[in-house]
Write a structure and sequence with these properties.
- The protein is mostly helical and 329 residues long.
- It is built from 15 helices and no strands.
- It has helices at 2-28, 34-44, 51-60, 67-79, 93-97, 100-130, 135-149, 152-166, 185-223, 226-233, 238-255, 258-267, 270-275, 281-291, 294-322.
Length: 329
């Protein structure tokens, strides 16, 4: 086990190096240039900008060399645990990205949404598989198509327009009502939950589709296995056949979802947070992308890359727990 884990860690380091180089190259090739935008803003304000000043700005932000030089400069700083400063705020990137309020907001939304996703998607997938071609199965299939097809910005705006703007049941933006003095902690918590309801609902509805489809497909495959027919022939109850024998083997493909679960808890829902104006890490990263804030984007994406390879490793290890026949070699 230890040898396998060390081997995978070594492969992951090489993979992360390749990802970092590709990511840095793409960022340097983006049409958005932070320095150029800053120069244009200065020129629009009536300030004259000389060529020497432009070169000085590019040198200040470490963008005066070519892509290869810039990448190895970034990599050298990374080896010294220097993640650089944000171009916009000039504050350390680590403090900007991993601010407790920003990370906490994204984590709360993602964690609650993930819990409801599993609680809703797996039972619906099972009931669709056990009632194949029934009205229940077709209804679940429609929900799957809705969850997979609707873009988050579109669906989020629909929920916001109906339940916040027209009906007024929930707040439309932010995390707490501005200018309100709360009598106690429970009143503040209630206001926070009201603000979080629509963003969480958006993420849940748009994410359960894929999980339901995976559960239904795998459950149908397992229910057609010989050992399931044998279990039924022995006189076992249908409930025991489904939840004790079939569902356990259905878990094996679902474990694959762990690979994407860990980064999703910390990455933030970029579009959803922007629609509902939540001060989460996803909205912050989207704004940095739009401004061409390379240190922020590199640190954010490499953080997600590390979480992704960690999630893949954990999912592989979980196979051996869910299915004793799987051996790590």
């Amino acid at each position: 086990m230890l040898k396998y884990i060390l081997k995978r860690i070594g492969i992951s380091i090489l993979l992360l190096l390749g990802v970092s180089f590709i990511l840095y190259t793409l960022l340097r090739c983006m049409p958005v240039d932070f320095v150029e935008t800053k120069i244009n803003n200065l020129a629009a304000s009536g300030n004259s900008v000389s060529d020497e000043f432009k070169e000085q700005l590019y040198a200040t932000y470490g963008l005066n060399g070519n892509i290869v030089e810039g990448y190895f400069s970034w990599l050298g700083n990374l080896c010294r645990l220097d993640f650089g400063n944000s171009f916009k705020s000039q504050r350390p990137v680590i403090k900007e990205i991993f601010a407790a309020d920003r990370m906490g907001t994204s984590f709360v939304v993602a964690a609650i949404a993930t819990i409801f996703e599993f609680l809703i998607a797996i039972p619906l997938g099972i009931t669709a598989a056990t009632h194949q071609y029934s009205f229940r199965d077709y209804l679940v299939t429609v929900l799957v198509l809705i969850g997979i097809s609707l873009p988050s910005f579109f669906f989020g705006q629909i929920l916001k327009g109906i339940f916040a703007d027209k009906l007024g049941w929930f707040p439309s933006e932010g995390m707490l009502t501005a200018g309100v003095t709360y009598a106690n902690l429970f009143e503040k918590l209630g206001d926070y939950i009201a603000h979080m309801f629509l963003p969480v609902l958006t993420v849940v509805i748009l994410s359960i589709g894929g999980r339901m489809r995976m559960t239904r497909t795998n459950m149908l495959e397992v229910l057609n296995s010989d050992y399931i027919r044998t279990a039924r022939a022995k006189g076992l109850s249908e409930r025991k056949v489904i939840y004790k024998h079939a569902f356990r083997n259905t878990l094996i493909p679902l474990v694959t979802g762990l690979a994407g679960l860990i980064p999703s808890l910390f990455s933030g829902a970029m579009i959803t947070e922007s629609v509902f104006q939540l001060s989460g890490i996803g909205k912050y990263a989207l704004e940095a992308m739009q401004m061409g804030d390379i240190p922020v984007i590199m640190t954010y994406n490499m953080f997600l890359a590390v979480l992704s390879v960690t999630g893949v490793l954990l999912s592989d290890l979980m196979y051996a727990v869910v299915d004793p026949r799987v051996k790590l070699a």
